Each structure stands twice: as structure tokens, then as C-alpha cells.
């Protein structure tokens, strides 16, 4: 126990009419939906980095948070873990996620960093055992330190590649030991600022080799979870090699990894790529690589990755609709890669930000489930493509252009436009959200 969250009660479900700030109004973890509890459907996870490691800085100003565990000692790292698991107890969420740099201070050498990670892995394991909180996924921070300014796997310096590989190894070892259900690779610096000093072909091949090494090592140590890539466009570099889901899939196909690796999709990154969250989810599902999600939002007026907690039920509902159409989560879940605003200084703010987000997601998830059960959207979609269900239409995909052209002229084909009925479909969605 710590006193950072002193006098903050455990958050419990009290129903939609509750006026208690410290209560769930829509998220009842024990509510059953299609034979599974809401906790098992949503699989909420807290992001260790934004909640406990981020100091509140931005590109124009320094830290605003003054947390008693900020510092570079193992003692403070363990205090941070104590506080984190106290929050997990208050929220009652089933999972959390980390980067290595979030949970252990940097060592003077790789050996010292690894040793510190091993010590913290044991400490986190004891905390997990006492609270029941599980690890959704682990990952390596290969972007914050200045050594990664030109990338990790794609760095022009082979020693940075080697250092990155060694870091991933010990992070995967820690993830396995803690029972992590996935391992994520986020290439925050895997891109370039200018083509004047960049060899695209070489860097892409390095990234492919790095991922192959990671997949091979996961098999070697018996890691049964999913390996996930998190697509990210633009910021912080001008061009990212893992720009969006479609780009990642092309990369995986090129290196024969499309059956080995899936994606962890973040709402904020989807928006930066010029897509909607549901577009990226639907694309991943169609390609068979949908793994897990980071649930946050961007400020649509700022144009950069602001990582805010979700607050739009319609947006969340459309996202979960695509996930439910794909059968729901397996090893994946809903990680809140979201952070407080720089002016939200109080411990209560951290609790309530997550509690509110849980409620938003629960409302959206239940709306998505109701839409899918209602079936109106799927019936309309099936009707729109019904013409392709005829034997003649199916056979056309195997004909030559000459044969198709001959049929068009022979049968005097004169297609007439058919309404897409977008507004009517949007009205259907509005009935549920």
C-alpha cells in the first residue's frame, strides 16, 4: 500500500443513475453478454508509461507532474510499481502494459539494464500475484534515448541494431516470465527525416531481418502469444515505414511473416494516417492480422498525437463493431495508451480519467453488440453486393477482358446507379448510440 491515492475508494459499478464520481455507471465487469463477462469482452489494460512514467511535458514546455517516484534508482522504480498496482486495485482492470524503460532505470551498460529489468520483473511478478492483474503485453522502448534518434532496427549504425536486438531479447524474456499475452513492436523512430541521407531499400531490409529474428526468438523460448506491430504514421519522423495497417501488411507479405505477426492499432495513429479507427480495424480484420488495440483519441484541432482518453460513444461503438464482427478479442484487449492533460495534476485525475474511459468503452461496446445482433447494417451490406452472389457474376472474375466485353455488348448491359443509402445507415447507428 502507498498513500499516493489516499482516501480514493475502489471504483465499483453503481448504475447509470449514480452521481458518485468514483463509480462506474456503465462498466459492470460482471455483466454477461453472449456468455462472457464485460471484463472478458473488453480486456481493459492500463498503460504504465503514460500513467506513471510521463512527466507532463510537451514540445513547448517541461514537466508539470511532480511524482514522488520520479528518478533513476531501483528504489524509486519499486515505489512506482507499488503506486501502479495500488491504482490497478482501485480500478479493478484485468491487465496492464509496459515498456522496459517504464519499469526499470537505465543502466550504465546493457548488462546492468538487463539485470535491473530482471529484478523488476520479479518484483512485478509478486505484485501481479497479489492483485491478480495480468500483463496484456510488454515491449521495448527503442525510441526515447538519443542512441535511437536515427531508428533502431533501421539505424545506419549496425551497433544500434545490435543494441536494439539485445533489448528486445530481454524484454521478450520478461514478457514470457510474467505471462504476457502479446509482445508489441512500436517503431517510433523507424523512419526518416530526409531522403538525402537515407537508403530506403537497405533500411527496409534491416527492419525485415529484425522482425524475423524476433519471431524466431519467440518460437525458441516458447512464447505462445501474438507478436504485434503498432502502425504509426508521420510524427515523430517525416515518414514511418509502418505507416498504417495496409503498409504493415505489405511489409509482412514481403518477408513471409503475414501468418506470424498481427497489428496493435491505435485510434490516434489511425487519425494521423488520414483514416478512421474503424477503417484500420476493418482493414486488419479483412487481412487476418487484427490483434489488439490502443484506445485513445486525438484533438482534431491540433493535428498531432495528443493521446487523450476516449470520450465519444459513437466513435468507440463503430470501432468495437468491427472488432465484434471479427469475433472479438482473443489475446488482444483494450489498452488505454492515453495520458492526462498537463494541467490535470491530482491523483484523483488519474483515477477518474480511466474510470470515465472504461464507462465510454462499455457503452460503445454494448451499442456495437446490439447493432450486430439487430443485423440491419449487415443485411443492408449483403443486399448491396447481392448481385455478386449469382453464378454468372462469380464466373466473371475468372474471364478475360475480351470475354467480358463480348457479354456486355451481346446482352446490351446498361447498369443503373443504385443508392448507397449512407444517411439511412447512419440513422441506424444513431438508434444505438
Automatic annotation (TrEMBL):
PROSITE patterns: XYLOSE_ISOMERASE. Mg(2+) 1 binds at residues 230, 266, 294, 337. Its cofactor is Mg(2+). Keywords: Carbohydrate metabolism, Cytoplasm, Isomerase, Magnesium, Metal-binding, Xylose metabolism. InterPro entries: Xyl_isomerase-like_sf, Xylose_isom_bac, Xylose_isomerase. GO terms for molecular function: xylose isomerase activity. It is an enzyme of class 5 (isomerase). Its EC number is 5.3.1.5. Mg(2+) 2 binds at residues 266, 269, 305, 307. It catalyses: alpha-D-xylose = alpha-D-xylulofuranose. The keyword Magnesium applies. It is found in: Cytoplasm. SUPFAM superfamilies: Xylose isomerase-like. HAMAP family: Xylose_isom_A. Homotetramer. Belongs to the xylose isomerase family. This is Xylose isomerase. It comes from Thalassococcus lentus.
Amino acid at each position: 500500500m502507498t498513500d499516493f491515492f489516499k482516501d480514493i475508494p475502489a471504483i465499483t459499478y453503481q448504475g447509470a443513475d449514480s452521481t458518485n464520481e468514483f463509480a462506474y455507471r456503465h462498466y459492470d465487469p460482471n455483466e454477461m453478454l453472449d456468455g462472457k463477462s464485460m471484463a472478458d469482452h473488453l480486456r481493459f489494460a492500463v498503460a504504465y508509461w503514460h500513467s506513471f512514467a510521463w512527466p507532463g511535458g510537451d514540445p513547448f514546455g517541461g514537466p508539470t507532474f511532480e511524482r514522488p517516484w520520479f528518478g533513476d534508482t531501483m528504489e524509486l522504480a519499486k515505489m512506482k510499481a507499488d503506486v501502479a498496482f495500488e491504482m490497478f486495485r482501485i480500478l479493478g482492470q484485468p491487465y496492464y502494459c509496459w515498456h522496459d524503460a517504464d519499469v526499470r532505470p537505465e543502466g550504465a551498460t546493457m548488462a546492468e539494464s538487463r539485470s535491473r529489468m530482471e529484478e523488476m520483473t520479479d518484483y512485478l511478478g509478486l505484485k501481479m500475484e497479489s492483485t491478480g492483474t495480468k500483463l496484456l503485453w510488454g515491449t521495448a522502448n527503442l525510441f526515447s534515448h538519443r542512441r535511437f534518434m536515427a531508428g533502431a532496427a533501421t539505424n545506419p549504425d549496425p551497433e544500434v541494431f545490435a543494441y536494439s536486438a539485445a533489448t528486445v531479447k530481454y524484454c521478450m524474456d520478461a514478457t514470457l516470465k510474467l505471462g504476457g499475452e502479446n509482445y508489441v513492436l512500436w517503431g517510433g523512430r523507424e523512419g526518416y527525416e530526409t531522403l538525402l541521407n537515407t537508403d530506403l531499400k537497405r533500411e527496409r531490409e534491416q527492419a525485415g531481418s529484425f522482425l524475423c529474428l524476433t519471431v524466431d526468438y519467440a518460437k525458441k523460448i516458447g512464447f505462445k502469444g501474438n507478436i504485434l506491430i503498432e502502425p504509426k504514421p508521420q510524427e515523430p519522423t517525416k515518414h514511418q515505414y509502418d505507416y498504417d495497417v495496409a503498409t504493415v501488411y505489405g511489409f509482412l507479405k514481403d518477408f513471409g511473416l503475414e501468418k506470424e505477426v498481427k497489428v496493435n492499432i491505435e485510434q490516434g495513429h489511425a487519425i494521423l494516417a488520414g483514416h478512421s479507427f474503424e477503417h484500420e480495424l476493418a482493414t486488419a480484420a479483412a487481412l487476418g492480422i487484427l490483434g489488439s488495440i490502443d484506445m485513445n483519441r486525438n484533438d482534431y484541432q491540433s493535428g498531432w498525437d495528443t493521446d487523450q482518453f476516449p470520450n465519444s460513444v459513437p466513435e468507440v461503438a463503430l470501432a468495437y463493431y468491427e472488432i465484434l464482427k471479427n469475433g472479438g478479442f482473443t489475446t488482444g484487449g483494450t489498452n488505454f495508451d492515453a495520458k492526462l492533460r498537463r494541467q490535470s495534476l491530482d491523483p484523483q485525475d488519474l483515477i477518474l480519467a480511466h474510470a470515465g474511459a472504461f464507462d465510454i468503452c462499455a457503452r460503445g461496446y454494448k451499442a456495437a453488440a446490439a447493432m450486430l445482433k439487430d443485423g440491419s447494417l449487415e443485411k443492408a451490406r449483403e443486399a448491396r453486393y447481392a448481385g455478386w452472389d449469382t453464378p454468372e457474376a462469380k464466373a466473371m472474375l475468372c474471364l478475360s477482358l475480351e470475354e467480358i466485353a463480348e457479354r456486355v455488348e451481346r446482352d446490351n448491359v446498361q447498369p443503373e446507379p443504385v443508392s448507397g443509402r449512407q444517411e439511412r445507415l447512419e440513422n441506424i447507428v444513431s438508434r444505438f448510440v
